[in-house]
Amino acid sequence: MNPLNKHNKGILFIDKPSGRSSFSIVAEVRRKLDIKKVGHAGTLDPFATGLLIILVGKENTKKAAAFLGKNKTYEATIDLSSTSTTGDPEGEIVKVSCQPPSQEEIVNVLKQFEGEQLQKPHMFSAVKIKGERAYKLAREGKQPEIEPKKIIIYKLDFISYNFPFLRIKTKVSSGTYIRVLAEDIGKALYCGGYLTELRRTSIGEFKIEEAISPDDIK
């Protein structure tokens, strides 16, 4: 089969599985298609799943910026009973004492997060501080000073809740950190909060339904 999207020659939509880095998917595409110039348009953390746009060929890798600025949608599961140093399952998990909130309280809190706001990128993120990645400084035990950035949360919808696990769906502007959103939701509920699952379902007009498994690349 030809894995390149029929409407976008040189653009490949992958449904990234959990446990793999975005770079490993790029390397697999490069190897299987025997094309040296391959890149991606927006990384996903190894624990996350969902839509990863791969750009194949020199001309297409130049278009990365056009994809990076698009809005994105995610489905996420938040554990309200604990915190994580990284905001995800890769960090040090610490249990917290928490009175389980009601579904009504959760729905009300979620609505408070919709709209334009300032969000400080996670200290375990790839944002650069004086040329250094924030996560590298954090791993060295440093506390990097990170400037907040303007983001927009267009929608933040309740999916399901069975304490401690809260599932949400959100549409956000480019540059929004869902890990930070999960932590902030937990704080607003006077609980813990970190992502146990994260799935990207769209990037702009491109949907996860258009994606294929890495195993289908031939």
What are the main properties of this structure?
single chain; Alpha-Beta Plaits; nine-stranded mixed sheet; 2 domains; 218 residues; Pseudouridine synthase
How much helicity do the residues have? 10-25%
Text of the CATH class of the largest domain: Alpha Beta
- Helix/strand order, N-terminal first: EHEEHHEEEHEEEHEEHEE
Indicate the structural class.
alpha+beta
Radius of gyration over C-alpha positions, nearest whole angstrom: 18 Å
What best-fitting shape do the alpha-carbon axes yield?
globular
Mean pLDDT reading: 89
Given the structure, what is the number of helices? Answer: 6
How many structural domains in the coordinates? 2
How many strands in all? 13
Report the sheet-strand fraction.
Answer: 25-35%
Sheet of most strands: 9 strands, mixed
* Name given to the CATH architecture of the largest domain: 2-Layer Sandwich
Q: Gap between N and C termini, in Å?
A: 6 Å
Low-confidence stretches: none
CATH H level of the largest domain: which superfamily? Answer: Pseudouridine synthase
Tell me the CATH topology of the largest domain: Pseudouridine synthase
